[in-house]
Each structure stands twice: as structure tokens, then as C-alpha cells.
Amino acid sequence: MKIKILLLLGGIYLSSPIMAQGLQIQDKPLPCIEKTFSVVVHIPKDTLGDIYIREDQVQDAIDTMNVYFAPICARFELCEFNVIENFQYSIPANTNEWEQMKVKYQQNNRINVFIVLSIPWVPFDCGYTDLGGLEFPQRDALMLKLICLTDLPKSLSHEMGHYFGLLDTYGTENTPPELVDGSNCETAGDLICDTPADPFVPGDTLSPKYLHADIPCRFVFEGEDPAGQYYTPDVGNMMTLYPDTCRCGFTQQQFHKMVDIYRTSMGSW
Asked: Which residue range forms the structural domain that includes residue 58?
């Protein structure tokens, strides 16, 4: 099903996963890449020499991801479940160890996903993904925390969005804040114009600052943008850091961005 998210969520708006499904519409056809990506999942053993996740749990996350990437005819299939004997990599200490992991275990022409117990240097997100890594599959990969894969089923889809070149909806520390009226949307925030400005700051407690304490997915932040307008971000977007249960898909422009990245990368696949 072709989808577009048009959620208006603010102090007076209420959303839930059920309501969000009813707001998934699209006014133009999306491009179709007709591509099945082979995924290799790497699991370092823990300090006791145990494997801390089952293959069927990984498959569940991939099945979920296939639902959200279906509008552009992209599909993912688990082709290998690779166990790494070195327990050190179950909690990579820094980006140097991350680079070591990729050099040692990366497989060409595959999407490589590393499932680890923790990422000490990424405290506020579920993973660490090489942005736009789809263009460089021989060197780039995704890393995801175990608890996110098992407890937050859409987190792999979120990280894959990064791998396909998407930013978090609030942007990065290198992009200026987006204005609510969208006038700077091409150069600010997530650089996508059909995702509303998002005031989220990584590390901030979601509730009570951003979300209603008792009503899931209701946005209540009282802050204004520099022009004095109140934020109404789409907490249902797959690239937000709002609760996983609120996420319900990508926007049309996000899909187009991911297709563009794939087309640029076709020589690598």
C-alpha cells in the first residue's frame, strides 16, 4: 500500500497508532525500485560465550521492516546469521572498534547489521548507522542495540532509514533548526520538506516535556520556534525519536530520497 504520513500533532491534536493508519494517504505514485536486499546479521557472543538473540527474533524485525519499505518495492531477506566469537565486540567501546568490526566481518554486496548489547558512546539512540551507507556497502553498515531489536520492533526500520540517507526528523547538530512554517526546510532540520519541524533534543526526557503523560503519542511541548510559532511535529514518522509505538511510516519525500540514494548506489549492488 502506498503511504504518506500527514499527522498534525500538537498541544490540541491527538494521535494514536490506529488514528495514524487512517491518515496514511498519498497524492502521487511512488517510484518502485524492485529490489530485494540480502541482509547479513552479525552477533558477537557475550562475555559468557552465549548468543543473546535468536534468528527468529531477527526475522521478525526484518518482516516488520518489509512492511514499511514495501511502498517503494524494496524488500529485505535474511541470508546469513553470523556469530562472532570475540565478546569484546558485544559492547564496542568506541568508533575505532566499530571500524574494526566492519573491516573484519563486512560482507560485500550485502547489508551488514551488527546486533550488540550496548553502544556506550550512543546513549540516546537505538543504534549507530553509517548515513547513506547504501551507497558504500563494501565499507558501511548498521549497528543496533539488542534491547531495541527485541522491544522496539520498528527500530531496525528507523536505522535502515539512516542507511538509505535519511536524517532524524529533528536534524543533526550540523543542521540549523527548521522553522514551523517550513520556509527553511531545504537547508534546516532533516532537509525534508514534508516532515514538520521537530524541536526534539536527544537526551531530553520524552514526558512530560514532549508527550502527554497519560495519552500516548499526544504532543504537548509548549516551546515556540524563533518566529513565535508552536511546533506540531509528526510523532508518527519512522525517523523520529518519539516512542516506537507511535511510528507508522515514511513520508513521500522521504521515500523519494531513499530511492534517489539507491539509484546512486546501483553500481555497488
From this structure: 35-167+256-268
In a domain, 120, yes or no: yes
For residues 260 and 165, give the distance between their C-alpha atoms in angstroms, rounded to a whole number.
Answer: 9
How many angstroms separate the CA atoms of 221 and 207, rounded?
9
Rounded CA separation 172/117 (Å): 25
Taking a C-beta distance cutoff of 8 angstroms, is the pair 41, 80 a contact?
A: yes
Tell the burial category of 262 from Cβ atoms under 10 Å away from its Cβ (0-12, 13-18, 19+). buried
Q: How far is CA 192 from the centre of its chain?
A: 15
Is the distance from CB of 224 to CB of 230 less than 8 angstroms?
Answer: yes
**pLDDT confidence band for 21 (50 / 70 / 90):** very low
Q: For residue range 176-214, what is the model confidence (pLDDT) as tens digits?
A: 999 999 999 999 999 999 999 999 998 887 777 899 888
Strand stretches in the chain, DSSP E: 35-44, 74-84, 111-116, 127-129, 142-145
β-bridge partners, 76 = 37
Alpha-carbon gap, residue 75 to 69, rounded angstroms: 7
Q: Which cell numbers hold the place of 251? A: 513520508
Query: If you write DSSP's letter for every residue of 84-116 in order, what string do you get?
Result: E--GGGGS--SHHHHHHHHHHH--TTSEEEEEE
Cα–Cα dist 83/63, whole Å: 21
Q: How many domains does the chain have?
A: 1
